[in-house]
Amino acid sequence: MRLRSRTAVLAGALVLAIGTGVPAQAAPLVTLDTGHVDVVDVEYADGGFELHIHHETQGELDPADTLLRVLPKAKTTVPDDPAYAFLGAPGRSVWILPQVQDPDLLFAGLSTEELEAGVFTGDQVTVTLCAVSGPGKVSVFTTDAVGNPGVVFNSRDGLPDATALPVAGHQHANWAFSAAGTYRVTFHVSARLASTGQVVTSEPMTVTFKVLNP
């Protein structure tokens, strides 16, 4: 697995640094602001879940070393439509990474593509948004062919929020932020094993977004 390989390399560098008396360097921060990114990419191995970020060109990334930037182009206003009240008052500013790919912004999703059928009851897992810290609210929502929204997560009305995803699947959605600034967004994943009925839950994973003003 690529993440394990990266961890092994970092561990080797630490041993080398100690052996030569050179201070170990922190991993460089990877900054992403365009391209296809799975904000939560789920794997299951050795009886437990492993969560990471996955980018179309950078591969698997440790969230602790990764910054997802929401560029100024994402800034828009809340529609004057009661169906979008979960985003705030009509006309207020909101930054949205869209469900349909824009080459100038991040194309953000959730992925269970590496999970196999038959392992979990109902062939599904639950992704939970546990906590949000930052200057505003975070919402994740889908839109249908005629523009009707379906809320997946919404920190405005309290957390945790959870959604069920099929294994071997992939979901893109709109990721909305109500103010500019830095957000730390924490997720975990759980599922029931089909073989034993035991519920397995991942460790929390915190993803950092930086929302930029024009």
Report on the architecture of this protein.
With 214 residues, the chain is mainly beta. It has one domain. Strand 2 and strand 3 form a beta hairpin. 30% of the residues are buried. This is Surface-anchored protein. Keywords: Signal. InterPro entries: Surface-anchored_actinobac.
In short:
The chain has 214 residues and is mainly β.
Count of helices? Answer: 1
Q: Report the count of strand segments.
A: 17
Spans where pLDDT lies below 50 across 5 or more residues: 1-23
Biggest sheet layout:
7 strands, mixed
Question: What oligomerization state is this entry in?
Answer: single chain
Question: What is the SS-derived class?
Answer: mainly beta
Percent of residues in beta strands: over 45%
Q: How would you sum up the global shape?
A: globular
Radius of gyration from CA coordinates: 18 Å
**How many domains in all?**
1
How do the helices and strands follow one another from N- to C-terminus? Answer: HEEEEEEEEEEEEEEEEE
Mean pLDDT equals 91
Helix content: under 10%
Through-space gap between termini: 39 Å
Keywords:
signal; Surface-anchored protein; five-stranded mixed β-sheet; 17 strands; Surface-anchored_actinobac; 214 residues; disordered N terminus; globular; single chain; mainly beta; seven-stranded mixed β-sheet; 1 helix; 9% helix
